[in-house]
Amino acid sequence: SQQGEEDPQALSIQEGENATMNCSYKTSINNLQWYRQNSGRGLVHLILIRSNEREKHSGRLRVTLDTSKKSSSLLITASRAADTASYFCATDFNQAGTALIFGKGTTLSVSS
Amino acid sequence: GAGVSQSPRYKVAKRGQDVALRCDPISGHVSLFWYQQALGQGPEFLTYFQNEAQLDKSGLPSDRFFAERPEGSVSTLKIQRTQQEDSAVYLCASSLATASYSNQPQHFGDGTRLSIL
After folding, report:
1. Is the peptide bond before B70 cis (omega within 30 degrees of 0)?
2. Which residues of B touch A (CB under 8 A)?
3. Which residues of chain B are under the pLDDT cut of 50?
4. Is A94 an interface residue toward B (CB < 8 Å)?
5. How many whole angstroms separate alpha carbon A32 and alpha carbon A93?
6. For a surface tag, which of A5, A52, B67, B103 has the fewest beta carbons within 10 Å of its beta carbon?
7. Nearest residue of A to residue B39 by CA position?
8. Closest-CA distance of chain A to residue B63, Å
9. What values do phi and psi take at B85, rounded to 5?
10. Tens of pLDDT along B11-29?
11. Alpha-carbon span A29 to A41, nearest angstrom
12. Helix, strand, or coil (residue A83)
């Protein structure tokens, strides 16, 4: 079963534009992470935000977390063709604490 | 090593055959995870090891799936009597974390793409 749901499923933008992806989840969390996956490759960790944080920045990435709405957003500013990938949010599995639960992902296409 | 290494990268097997997928985690990483990723979906948890101990195997879809990590480093995921629905990408990840795993990022290999004919 998948905890997170990303929105939109697919996003196409031009280089230089900003890209915003959203993630909603169902149960309470300790942390939420965002990962990127290039075609045919494994996932790469982008950023982790704790449940007591509301916003976090890393380079061109900005992540927000609203625990009252059980949602998070990932903003990529000044996008580049190299940002073309699938983006997944992942939440921790509260009970056993031994897994990340991933959403279905947003596929981002950045054209030059 | 520099990263998580998985082999083979691609595996084609006939239905009913057994397959073995290998994962070399980052040296010193205590935690090791296996995930299954269907086309167009996010990874789904299969099993978790802390060193050589398999602490959670709740995600394994059937008793045809078996994973081991006998010396606390390399891990093997074995699928017996493969079925077409086993076709997927199998991802391995490792992390430094012992407890509170979710405070640490997971480092993924590039996966093994398994196709069952």
Report:
1. no
2. 4, 33, 35, 40-45, 48, 55-56, 58-59, 91, 93, 99-103, 105-111
3. 99
4. no
5. 10
6. A52
7. A104
8. 19
9. -70, -10
10. 999 999 999 999 999 999 9
11. 27
12. helix
Tokens coding B45: 């948890």
pLDDT digits (tens, 9 = 90+) for A42-92: 999 999 999 999 999 999 999 999 999 999 999 999 999 999 999 999 987
Strands B10-13 and B112-116: parallel
Q: For B61, which residue in chain A has the nearest alpha carbon? A: A1
Q: Indicate the average pLDDT of chain B.
A: 93
Length of chain A: 112
- The pLDDT of residue A38 is 96
What CA–CA distances, in Å, run from B34 to A82, A98, B21, B63, B85? 27, 11, 10, 15, 17
Tokens 């084609």 appear where? B12
Tokens representing residue A4 in the block: 């997170």
Disruptive mutation site among B5, B31, B47, B102 for chain A (greatest number of A CBs within 10 Å)? B102
